[in-house]
Amino acid sequence: QKEVEQDPGPLSVPEGAIVSLNCTYSNSAFQYFMWYRQYSRKGPELLMYTYSSGNKEDGRFTAQVDKSSKYISLFIRDSQPSDSATYLCAMKREDSSYKLIFGSGTRLLVRP
Amino acid sequence: DAGITQSPRHKVTETGTPVTLRCHQTENHRYMYWYRQDPGHGLRLIHYSYGVKDTDKGEVSDGYSVSRSKTEDFLLTLESATSSQTSVYFCAISTQEDTEAFFGQGTRLTVV
Predict the structure, then answer these.
(1) Using the beta-carbon criterion (under 8 Å), do B42 and A102 form an inter-chain contact?
(2) Cis peptide bond prior to B39, omega within 30° of 0
(3) Residues 6+ apart with CB under 8 A from A20
(4) Which chain B residue has the Cα nearest residue A40?
(5) Burial letters for B16-47: b for 16+ Cβ neighbours within 10 Å, e otherwise?
(6) Which residues contact B55 (CB under 8 A, 6 or more apart)?
């Protein structure tokens, strides 16, 4: 079983829709949670970073962490065609500052 | 791209030949990483470095070696390339204080 599970998609939504992307994990020691966006043939770029449980909002993006359920989410409001990309979740333990564990990514397509 | 340059960007090589990929950073970050990205597996850590001449193995290190003789350069060597090493390779950097990693544009390697 992988430490981090992520539905590969593709997830296809119309422009303007609210998008929900999710990851589940098995290691309760994870404390840092990140979302990366990766456009085709590009490197991943950091979107959101949260520590422990709770919500964090940045513009149209909201990241949620539910440590009791070992579940993290990324919400995108008013989705745009430019949001079409692969979204990767990543996480790490408190005692391992440089070892990120990634999900396999969810491909999102926002239709005009 | 956070001052990270990977070279070459594309390479085709034959089975059994040695291959070296280079990552160069201008950010003076302490930590450097090599990941490979394959469909269904997401990003997997090959090796990482926490300083000049200080390196350690990641989760998929077999068949790979690394060297870091200067802060700015991190080399990944495939001693004898195999078809299973066909992949997209990403270099990443991070500071000691930050938890997020910044990625390069990737190197697409094909072993025939």
Answers:
(1) yes
(2) no
(3) A73, A74, A75
(4) B105
(5) eeebebebbbeeebbbbbbbbbeeeebbbbbb
(6) B47, B48, B49, B66, B67, B68
Query: Phi and psi of A9, rounded to 5°?
Result: 75, -150
DSSP A4-44: EE-----EEEETT--EEEEEEES-TTEEEEEEEEE-TTS--
Contacts of B97 (CB under 8 A, 6+ apart): none
In this structure, which amino acid lies at residue A77? Answer: R
CA distance A12 to chain B (A): 19
Q: Are B8 and B106 in contact (CB under 8 A)?
A: no
* φ/ψ bin of A100: left (φ > 0), alpha (ψ from -120 to 50), beta (otherwise): beta
- In the DSSP assignment, the letter for residue B63 is T
Structure tokens at A81: 């065609």
Give the tens place of pLDDT for each residue, A1-42.
Answer: 788 999 988 999 999 999 999 999 998 989 889 999 999 999
Asked if residue B81 lies in contact with residue B17, where contact means CB atoms within 8 angstroms, the answer is yes
Q: What is the pLDDT of residues B3-42, one digit of tens each?
A: 999 999 999 999 999 999 999 999 999 999 999 999 878 8
**DSSP single-letter state for residue B30:** S
Terminal C-alpha separation, chain A:
37
Interval A60-98: pLDDT, tens: 999 999 999 999 999 999 999 999 999 999 998 877 656
Whether A44 and B40 lie within 8 Å, measured CB to CB: no
